[in-house]
Amino acid sequence: MTRTQPAKRRELILRSAVQQGLLEPDHAVLAGFIDLDGVLASITNLHRAFPASLNVMHTVAAKANCLVPVLEAFSRNGMGCEVASPGELAQALAAGFAPERIVYDSPSKTRAELAQALELGVAVNADNFQELERMDGILAGRASDSRIGVRINPQVGSGDIAAMSTATLTSKFGIALEDDGNRRRLIQEFQDRPWLTWLHAHVGSQGCPLELMAEGIAKTVALAEEINASLGRRQVVGIDIGGGLPVNFTGDDTAPTFDEYVERLRAYAPALFSGAYQIVTEFGRSLLAKNGYTAAYVEYTKTSGGRRIVITHAGAQVAARTVFMPDSWPIRITAHNPSGHLKEGATAPQDIAGPCCFAGDVVAQARSLPVLEPGDIVTLLDTGAYYFSTPFHYNSLPDPAVYAVHTNPDGEVKFDLVRRAESIQELLDRTGAHQL
Ligand SMILES: *Cc1c(COP(=O)(O)O)cnc(C)c1O
């Protein structure tokens, strides 16, 4: 069997983690790993994709991996941060992002959240007309350094995953551009508010073709031109194009690439590259997913109704999307022996199940893998975004430990703790034990 370079690297990381006791069959049955060398390479690819002559600020979407030391790696490497809740804002500040490098998007900002963001000088994208009015009240009292924009829904349609498509006719996000009267009203909103200077669109995430995303951005840029022409001044100075580049969950290739997306954007929205606009991006999954994986021990195996079932310690608590929407979020799984070496030998279809007490807690059905035994290890690949970083608290399973991985020039693997595994005491604290 030939192994690809990424597969060899993942195996080396797993073997090192076992050797160093980070994975251990009694007390450390589950952990997440984030490859910081890979994250750095993804950041470099993103920066290189856009022409250096443009004024672009790349932010990472905090929700994709909100672990503060992971966000800190982005802040250290020249990125900004997109946040969508007071918690994410606090995480971004703790990770060292300057307020002017933070962008606050969310469809449900309270008055207090808006006032705090505007006070700090964090960039804010309003989601709707009511939020703009709310900001009038706050800004009447005091000036703010915040760049302020409004999110539009370019209504270009749906990708393959309805729950990930944010630019459908009826999406809950942004101001629906094509609805009766909205285009005219948007121009008036800009006319009335000299402080409103940015447009924002995030067309969708996983499952959206590049053409659909580029079409949404093209409509946003066209609106900016229309507003500026109609006001007779260049009031819209920046376009926040959101994130949403899809990730390949079927193999090791990065596809599509940031370069391919930029090429498509150039074709659909040439004015974005004219130099007339500042640009913000908000990628999450495409920077992180392929740079992380989850490792879990196999506790038991059995056969039911002729089906081989493998009970592991990774289920819905770290792979909620895959468990609840298996057809939309299939992930690759690898099989390893207790020392972390890739398992070889006879394969058989096996259900890879998790520890949660509901029947659907299965991360892969009838997956052909080398036959797994108790004490073996499985890895869930491409889970660096939206998986172990945001666990689901079902069955009071603790949040797993997460480690950042770097490789020394001599090939030695080094781990830094990103988040320790939640203790039973911490778990009791978050479930109200202190109220007794
Ligand atoms: C989730 C989200 C992102 C990041 O999306 P990815 O698919 O992870 O790139 C960016 N912007 C907004 C507004 C979002 O909601």
Automatic annotation (TrEMBL):
Gene3D superfamilies for this protein: Alanine racemase, Lyase, Ornithine Decarboxylase, Chain A, domain 1
Keywords, in A-Z order: Amino-acid biosynthesis, Lyase, Lysine biosynthesis, Pyridoxal phosphate
EC class: lyase
GO molecular function, a single term: diaminopimelate decarboxylase activity
EC number, UniProt record: 4.1.1.20
Domain Orn/DAP/Arg decarboxylase 2 N-terminal, first and last residues per copy: 42-288
Cofactor: pyridoxal 5'-phosphate
Record bears the keyword Lyase: yes
Residue ranges constituting the Orn/DAP/Arg decarboxylase 2 C-terminal domain according to the UniProt record: 290-384
SUPFAM superfamilies: Alanine racemase C-terminal domain-like, PLP-binding barrel
Pfam families documented for this protein: Orn_Arg_deC_N, Orn_DAP_Arg_deC
Family per record: Belongs to the Orn/Lys/Arg decarboxylase class-II family.
Protein name, per record: Diaminopimelate decarboxylase
